[in-house]
Specification:
Layout (H helix, E strand, L loop, with lengths): L2 H27 L7 H16 L7 H23 L12 H9 L2 E2 L6 H14 L1 H18 L8 H30 L3 E2 L12 H7 L3 H23 L5 H24 L6 H50 L1
Antiparallel strand pairs: 1-2
C-alpha cells in the first residue's frame, strides 16, 4: 500500500470520527433544546460540516459513498429530526442506534419480529441473492476491465459503463453494510435498489426501484411540504405539479453537489436539467395515466348505461 492510499484511509477514518462525534452532539442537544427552529439553529453547523467533509477525500469510491450517506441522507434526516419528524425522531432510540440510523440508509425494524426477520433475510440473501450478486460481480469486473479501452469507445458507451459502475458498486457496498448492521445491531437496511433495469415506466423507476431511501427522504423533506404550501395557491388538483418539479430540482442539485465532490470542477448544471427533464416526462406520464383511467371509467359508465337500457327495453317489450 503506497503512502497516498495510507493517507486517504487515515483521512477517511478521521472524518468518520468527526461524523460520529457530531451525531453524538445532535443526540445530546435534542434532550435539552425544544424541537423546531431552536434545534435547527444548533445543528446547522453540523450540517455545514457534513457538506464540507467530502472535500478532503480524493478517492471516487470513498468520496461518493460518504457524500451520499452523510452530506445528503444524514443532512436531510437531521433536517427532519429538528422538527420532530423522520427516522431519528423516535424517542426510544439509543445513542448507538441514533448514530447508525443517521449514518446509513437504515429502517427501524419491529422488535417483535426482529429475530425472525433477521434469520429470514439472511437465508434469503444466501439462497436468492447469491446468484444475482455473482453475476453482478462479473459485470463489475468486466466494466473495470473495459475502462482500459476507453480511448476507443464512443462517449455514449462510456457513459453507460459509468452508470453500470455506479449501480453495481452501490449494490455491493450496501449489501456489505446490511450484513454488518444485521450482525452488530440486528437491524435491516432500507433497500436502495429493486432491479431498476426491470422498470416499466418512469413512475416505476423513480418510485419503486431506484435509490429508494433517497426517494423516501425527498418525499418527506421536499415533496410533502411543497405540496402543502402549493395547496393554498393552486388547489388540490394542481398542487402536486409544483411539488413534483421542486423535488426533482432539489434531487438534481444534490446530485450536482455529489459530482462536484468527485471532480471538484465548476458545475455545468447538466445533471440538474436532466432531473428536471425527467420530472417533466414523469408529469406527462401521470397525466396520460389519469386520462386513460378516466377514459376507462367513462367507457364503463357508457357500457353500464347501454346494458341497463337494453335490459329495460327487453322488459318493456316482454311485459309492455
Amino acid at each position: 500500500m503506497n503512502e497516498s492510499m495510507k493517507g486517504e484511509i487515515s483521512n477517511y477514518i478521521n472524518i468518520w470520527l468527526q461524523v460520529i462525534m457530531s451525531l453524538c452532539y445532535c443526540y445530546g442537544i435534542s434532550k435539552v433544546v425544544p424541537r423546531g427552529f431552536p434545534t435547527l439553529l444548533v445543528i446547522v453547523p453540523i450540517m455545514c460540516l457534513f457538506l464540507a467533509l467530502p472535500m478532503s477525500l480524493h478517492s471516487v469510491h470513498l468520496c461518493g459513498t460518504f457524500a451520499f450517506f452523510i452530506s445528503w441522507l444524514a443532512n436531510f434526516k437531521l433536517l427532519l429530526f429538528a422538527f420532530g419528524k423522520g427516522p431519528l425522531s423516535n424517542p426510544s432510540l439509543s445513542l448507538k442506534q441514533f448514530v447508525v440510523f443517521a449514518s446509513f440508509p437504515v429502517k427501524i425494524q419491529n422488535p417483535k419480529s426482529q429475530d425472525e426477520a433477521t434469520s429470514t433475510s439472511t437465508s434469503s440473501f444466501e439462497k436468492t441473492n447469491l446468484l444475482k450478486y455473482t453475476v453482478k460481480g462479473l459485470v463489475f469486473t468486466g466494466v473495470l476491465r473495459a475502462y482500459s479501452y476507453n480511448n476507443y469507445m464512443h462517449p455514449v458507451v462510456l457513459y453507460c459503463l459509468y452508470c453500470i459502475h455506479i449501480y453495481v458498486m452501490l449494490e455491493f457496498m450496501l449489501a456489505m453494510v446490511a450484513v454488518l448492521a444485521r450482525t452488530l445491531l440486528g437491524i435491516e437496511l432500507e433497500p436502495q435498489f429493486n432491479e431498476p433495469y426491470l422498470c416499466s415506466s418512469l413512475q416505476d423507476f423513480w418510485g419503486r426501484r431506484w435509490n429508494l431511501m433517497a426517494s423516501t427522504i425527498l418525499q418527506s423533506t421536499v415533496y410533502q411540504p411543497t405540496k402543502q404550501f402549493a395547496l393554498h395557491l393552486f388547489g388540490r388538483k394542481w398542487a402536486s405539479i409544483p411539488a413534483l418539479f421542486v423535488t426533482f430540482l432539489i434531487s438534481g442539485l444534490v446530485h450536482e453537489l455529489i459530482f462536484y465532490y468527485l471532480g471538484q470542477v465548476k458545475p455545468t448544471y447538466e445533471i440538474t436539467w436532466f432531473f428536471l427533464l425527467h420530472g417533466f416526462c414523469l408529469l406527462l406520464e401521470v397525466l396520460r395515466c389519469n386520462a386513460f383511467q378516466r377514459g376507462l371509467q367513462e367507457y364503463a359508465a357508457v357500457g353500464a348505461f347501454v346494458k341497463n337500457s337494453t335490459r329495460t327495453l327487453k322488459l318493456w317489450f316482454n311485459y309492455g
